[in-house]
User: Fold this.
Amino acid sequence: MHDTFTGKPTRIRGRSHPPVRDRAALQDDHERRLAALAGLGAAAEKCGLRADSDRDLVLLAEDEVSLLESAGAEWAALGDAIRVWRALLPLRRLEDFGFAADVENPLEESNALLRRVGGGVEAWAFAAEADGSVYKFYLPREEKKIGSAFGFRGGHESRLLAEAGLGTYGALLEKLLLIHALGGMATEVVAATPEGIIVAKQTLGEPLPQGDDMSTRLPEGLIEIPSRFLRANRDHPRLFFLGGRAWLVGDLHARNFVRAPEGSLHLIDLVAAPWPMEATAGDPLILDWLARVREDPRASALSSSPDDEL
Ligand SMILES: Nc1ncnc2c1ncn2[C@@H]1O[C@H](COP(=O)(O)OP(=O)(O)OP(=O)(O)O)[C@@H](O)[C@H]1O
Ligand SMILES: [Mg+2]
Assistant:
């Protein structure tokens, strides 16, 4: 199956859930894409190119350093890293998705191929007229930032305060991986545009009424965080282990879930960040808790007493 807009292979079509095998392949794509971005950053640094934002790396053209590739092994490696990256995230123009080229904000309105279904702070969401698949256009903000991610600072009543702020391109790719890994609507990253917009594709679902209580309907694998350890300015902050790493995920309110035709609920959006290991390294209570919930997600905050005695 090929995507209508990019011509590349796709595993997402309309409302139908991809089979388990395809979901695993999609997750693998997310992981390989993140590894390729890290590899690209490392290769660029070896050539003395320090990007002040990962946006500059994300948009490198396939032939960007071709003239320098004979200048040495580092440059040749950078050329290879760019090509690996571009194969995992092709550049496409907004026109390729049916939007007009010559207007101030092309995403403002539906076009003949894409019908607007939503739009929030981070992304403009459209459903394809052809098959209903959802395409989300994440716009760059403050030039080199995109999406949202948690940042951390020390608190009084709790050890850490997590606050959502503008994210990086890497953080957006991590967020899309986490949505997928948490059993969310199948999610694919299909393209970047020259303006720095990231285009993601998702299985279509039915939005939930705003304000529905999600506290007892969160995805499996999410671990409640004692409020003395962390508070967040987004709904239902939770700990999640993926790829040997601990993550904070939050913003798990009803509008970030949709219902599938079978009736099941699935995430479409969240806010995340890697758990700040450095900030909690000196806190034996948190370290002990992290070690125990990694083994058993239902373990309590203190090894000697259940949480309700805290
Ligand atoms: N897979 C989907 N199926 C159906 N509707 C969707 C899907 N993805 C997004 N939408 C619609 O688009 C809206 C915005 O999507 P999303 O939450 O991913 O972007 P956002 O910019 O983070 O929005 P917000 O700021 O409201 O959280 C959703 O609230 C929903 O109405
Ligand atoms: Mg949202």
Remarks:
- Helices lie at 20-46, 54-58, 73-88, 169-181, 277-280, 284-295.
- The pocket of adenosine-5'-triphosphate (ligand 1) is lined by residues 117-123, 125, 134, 136, 185, 202, 204-205, 207, 255-256, 258, 268-269 (CB under 6 Å).
- The radius of gyration is 21 Å.
- The chain has a mean pLDDT of 94.
